[in-house]
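#structure-requests
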Amino acid sequence: MFRKRKEVTFKEVFWGSAFLIMIYFLFQQFHWIKLIGALFVLLVVIPTVYYFSNGHSFKAISFENKTYFAGVSAFFILLTTVLIILITVLISAFAPHLL
């Protein structure tokens, strides 16, 4: 009668994200800025969002408070987008021969 809530572990989130990033690179022209951005998202943003949305823990998320999770996720997605754009603009402004 009652279904158990789906719990998502950090390992599932990390490897699922890594798989999606690999698929993303299959359809993109390879460039080192895209690689740095993808590594930043995979190694910094995803663990940080998981940690803050899970009550400062890396235990499994049970999705009890979906609005808080959505708010934290949206904040870090916006922050990551702004940082990647800023890094790209700074690199293209100060080091055009590297691009």
